[in-house]
Amino acid sequence: MATMRTRRRRTRAATERRRGARSNAPAPPIVELDQATVVYPGGHVGIERVSLAVDRGEFIFLVGPTGCGKSTFIKLLIRELEPAGGAVRVAGRDINEMSHNRIPNLRRRIGTVFQDYKLLPDRTVYDNVAYSLRVTGGTRADIKRKVPDILRLVGLAGKINNYPEQLSGGEQQRVSVARAFVNHPPLLLADEPTGNLDPATSIGIMQLLYRINRTGTTVVVVTHDKTMVDKMRRRVIELYEGRVIRDQAAGLYAEDESTTEFGVRVRSELGIGEGHTNGDPGGHPEQ
Ligand SMILES: Nc1ncnc2c1ncn2[C@@H]1O[C@H](COP(=O)(O)OP(=O)(O)OP(=O)(O)O)[C@@H](O)[C@H]1O
Ligand SMILES: [Mg+2]
After folding, report:
1. pLDDT band at 224 (very low <50, low <70, confident <90, very high)
2. 69 within ligand 1 shell (Cβ under 6 A)
3. pTM for the model
4. Per-residue pLDDT tens over the stretch 64-111
5. Per residue, what are the HEC states of the chain?
6. Which residues crowd ion ligand 2, with CB under 5 Å?
7. Pocket of ligand 1 contains residue 253 by CB under 6 Å
8. Rounded to the nearest whole angstrom, what is the distance from the C-alpha of residue 222 to the centroid of ligand 2?
């Protein structure tokens, strides 16, 4: 394991060097808001002059009370909303200057997990995930290979033929994470992925997002659960009435914490016993 980690670190360093060799400029942040303001029809301000940058590979929590602008932020990044002022850049490109026919490509590169799951009720778990590959141009061979793989990653290999109504809330949420991640997007946005789940199941979902982050994907998680967030020791951005009121760097944590170590630590810090693992996709090899 240690050798694998070292190798991964070396590979990353080599990629950085190659990038550096091509140009002297460092890679731009994956997400950058520059004084972004959203005004809804009727004049309500969703977010106001928000400036922030998210680097590749970060794991970020976006917190704040209801109505503070968290979903507005997510919708801005997938261009469901356009800013009234300021700029929104994804991987260095101003997404509001993109032509309309480039938007599907932008959305293919950003996985989104919605709070209400948005699963198709008349399709099985397999078909729900396959559907998102199909609409983004996946071939039949892609689908046959990738769908079982991602369902194993989220711990749902045994429920492949179930319909959404035959799943628990935590399992439905894992299908929605699988669907968002099946294209291995560089950026994953999750809007309250644990909104309706009990604490033990929530940790299972967080553990899954943590595992995905360890594959190199930048993860932004919207949540109300400040207690859990503070225990997880990742960067926290807090909004209040549309403005950033806190942007706190990650607390101390072991850089090489494995997914399992992470789960054990957070469970123990939250005082949740090992017995409750119904949202935990554990038992899979470490990524
Ligand atoms: N389509 C809309 N038209 C007008 N106002 C809107 C619209 N969508 C959101 N708002 C308002 O913009 C503000 C921010 O909304 P947003 O959905 O981003 O909040 P949020 O932080 O995601 O809240 P929650 O935690 O409840 O999901 C709220 O005051 C909301 O009422
Ligand atoms: Mg919201």
Report:
1. confident
2. yes
3. 0.84
4. 999 999 999 999 999 999 999 999 999 999 999 999 999 988 988 999
5. CHHHHHHHHHHHHHHHHHHHHHCCCCCCCCEEEEEEEEECCCCCEEEEEEEEEECCCCEEEEECCCCCCHHHHHHHHCCCCCCCEEEEEECCEEHHHCCHHHHHHHHHCEEEECCCCCCCCCCCHHHHHHHHHHHCCCCHHHHHHHHHHHHHHCCCHHHCCCCHHHCCHHHHHHHHHHHHHCCCCCEEEEECCCCCCCHHHHHHHHHHHHHHHHCCCEEEEECCCHHHHHHHCCEEEEEECCEEEEEECCCCCCCCCCHHHHHHHHHHHCCCCCCCCCCCCCCCCCC
6. 70-71
7. no
8. 8
